[in-house]
Amino acid sequence: MNEHNAKKAPEWLQGDAPVLVTGAGGFIGRAVVRSLLNAGANTRALVRSPGAGAISRLGAEVTRGTIASPGRALRGVDTVFHLAYDLRASGSENLAEFRKFLNAIAHAGVSNLVHMSSVVVHDGWPVGDLVEDAPITPPDNGSSYRGAKIAMEALISDAVKKGQLSSATLLRPTLVYGPGSRIWSEAVVERLRSGPILVPDMPRDHPAGRPFGLCHLVHVDDLARAAVVAGAAAKPGLRAYLISDPSPTTWPEYYCAQARALGVGTIEKRPFAELEDRLMPLTVGSVDHGPSLAARVSSKLRTIVGNDTIDVVGRRLRRILQSNVAEQYPDRFLFDLYTATGEIDVSRAEAELGFVRGADVQGRLDEVAAFYS
């Protein structure tokens, strides 16, 4: 089995053997495909939606299928970049498909896996300071996104220990933004257009010198480059990397920067207790047990007409519904992020992957504004 390192990365990337990207039709997947192609890699994309044409036009070889039934996609492949995850399905459903894919990898003789995990696997996110060996405790309910990501990491670790994989890299990005990000770019744009965004002010009892309201972003292009280097520089065994902007901004600063790029939107600070008091308490029914009916319908439509068509229609409908300006109060999920105090140590990614922020944040937010104009 070949051992790769950063100095030999160009030779490896330009070799004849194809590298496979799963989830290539998704937001992050497309960026990884572009980054691999830019590096000269023989890139094969596994896609299941009608958006295959867009991937093919980038220059990648396109193979139709799913991770549960990859078919010929693994033929001749030594390295896999695994990014597939269906947010419209439950964590349990995603985990079941991943088990099948991991078995397929073992039978196909794949030796090197780069797996897109998430910072949410860590117990301390987003409050505690994090390094790669920070505690990870599996939740009682395995149907959640976090539970699935933790379980996937455990399965990969077992595969390495059993010799089914020679090397595996776990990437744990924070909040991935950029043109095409439905959660951390598109939703932010919609929020700014809908009315004033309310964020909590620092509480009076907050420890002096401790950061408050940190917005841990990572641009999709930076993450994609880190993924490619991780694949090329892999060594035997299992490694994990936290991936985030080394110089995080705060949520008010992020919103203000995006508002400047859009030319619309205001941000207002409100007392911490005022916003906290409006939050609904967590109940058994609020636990993530899987996607809603609407999400499942959306998933079915996407398999018929493609992600891009659904996204365009969805954006137009939301623009129509945003005619009534209203104050944007945070829900519990956003409130926890708005009050984040934890710092992310990315020194391992910097030292071993050469991870850096590729461009200034404001310039990239200008691109987001242009994309959604």
Automatic annotation (TrEMBL):
Short name of one Pfam family: Epimerase
Domain NAD-dependent epimerase/dehydratase: 19-233
Highest taxon above the source species: Bacteria
InterPro entries in UniProt: Epimerase_deHydtase, NAD(P)-bd_dom_sf, NAD(P)-dependent_oxidoreduct
Protein's recorded name: NAD-dependent epimerase/dehydratase family protein
Protein species of origin: Ruegeria sediminis
Highest classification ranks of the organism: Bacteria, Pseudomonadati, Pseudomonadota, Alphaproteobacteria, Rhodobacterales
